[in-house]
Design brief:
EC 3.1.26.4; single chain; Nucleotidyltransferase, domain 5; alpha/beta; RNaseH_sf
Length: 200
């Protein structure tokens, strides 16, 4: 069972991101403020749940949350500022969009770069410990997956509808054959070894 809150009395927002390790597409972050009495028997880290369950939970979270927000930082911005800073930027933008100002941020992971005075706690594997972070992980993951499936219609050869832009064998094989799209992160190492491009 996940924990409902970190503090006894502060208005908390859980924050998480999705897509950090991908070769293509945006990094997406979400921020969620849940009611103090919120409980859920299934809600967990999005990586631990099947796709249909995540999609169902997304609708429930959006309905039950006090407020929530999702933010995208695209591949071009990732290439400009690097993926770590892009992840912080996505979380900052999501927090800024919340209709209520949180008094404490619960950040999934061990690092965060704040851009305002809101106190924060970094919690390693927090999406498996606190409801609000788990809820943020669900929103970030489902919104990003939905977007990558839309891109896959334009570029079916990369199989983004199944790999979501992650560096799978099929994705990298498609890069070898077709090259990079405008949605690939040019600052990332797209292929393990450049020599793989040639048959020696």
């Amino acid at each position: 069972m996940l924990l409902p809150f970190f503090s006894d009395d502060k208005l908390e927002a859980g924050c998480d991101e999705a897509g950090r390790g991908c070769l293509a597409g945006p990094v997406v972050a979400a921020a969620v403020i849940l009611p103090r009495d919120y409980k859920h028997p299934v809600l967990n880290d999005s990586k631990q749940l099947p796709r249909k369950k995540r999609d169902t939970l997304r609708l429930e979270i959006e309905k039950e949350a006090i407020c929530w927000a999702v933010s995208f930082v695209d591949n071009h911005e990732i290439d400009k500022v690097n993926i770590l800073n892009a992840s912080y930027l996505a979380m900052n933008r999501a927090v800024d969009q919340l209709k209520s100002i949180p008094e404490l941020l619960l950040i999934d992971g061990n690092r965060y770069k704040p851009h305002n005075e809101i106190p924060f706690e970094c919690i390693i594997k927090g999406d498996g410990k606190y409801y609000s972070i788990a809820a943020a992980s669900i929103l970030a993951k489902t919104y990003r997956d939905e977007y990558m499936c839309e891109l896959a219609i334009q570029h079916p050869e990369y199989e983004w509808q199944s790999n979501m832009g992650y560096p799978t064998t099929a994705h990298r094989d498609a890069i070898k054959i077709h090259g990079l799209t405008d949605f690939h992160r040019k600052s990332f190492r797209q292929l393990p070894e450049q020599l793989e491009l040639f048959e020696l």
